[in-house]
Amino acid sequence: MGSDRSRVTVGCIVGTHGIKGSLKLKPLTDYPERFLHMETLYLELPQVKGRHRPPRELKILDVRFQDGKDLFIVTLEGIDTIEMAEDLKGALITVAPEDRVPLEEGVYWIDDIIGLEVVEDETDAVLGVVEDVMPTGSNDVYEVRTPDGVLKMIPATGEVIRKVDLEARQIRVHLLEGLWD
């Protein structure tokens, strides 16, 4: 099932818990604590036998962290049997972009970076477009597709990234010696 591109995936339903319709929710976000403060879940349901099912928005009655499992146990209004809960397995939990957790200045969402044009700061030469972001632990690495189709890597460090302008859809970079060769 494809998710609505205007929404951001923050979790998924991975199973049931007990016989009264509770669900196991796996966070797919750097901010899992967000689920403790949400009032509703917007569920994008998986297809059944090739048929699309409309999304559902359900009120959260109870949510708690399941220690040691990196999961939340969620009880939703109107879901009160294991059979009803089983029907929601595989659903993606999404939020509108404006409901994402606010980031500190200079920190960006990966989906905001992908698709930005990369421009060499000193010469204004267009180097390519960010195709993907690879988290490496110490810093992210941007995969940039050049105009001639070659995939190159740029470390997302302050030494290289000069300015990210989301409105202009552009990243200005300083190429260190040997980085682009």
Automatic annotation (TrEMBL):
It comes from the Bacteria. SUPFAM superfamilies: PRC-barrel domain, Translation proteins. GO terms for molecular function: ribosome binding. Pfam families: PRC_RimM, RimM. It is found in: Cytoplasm. Residues 111-179 form the Ribosome maturation factor RimM PRC barrel domain. Residues 10-97 form the RimM N-terminal domain. One of its GO terms (cellular component) is ribosome. An accessory protein needed during the final step in the assembly of 30S ribosomal subunit, possibly for assembly of the head region. Essential for efficient processing of 16S rRNA. May be needed both before and after RbfA during the maturation of 16S rRNA. It has affinity for free ribosomal 30S subunits but not for 70S ribosomes. This is Ribosome maturation factor RimM. The lineage of its organism: Bacteria, Thermotogati, Synergistota, Synergistia, Synergistales.
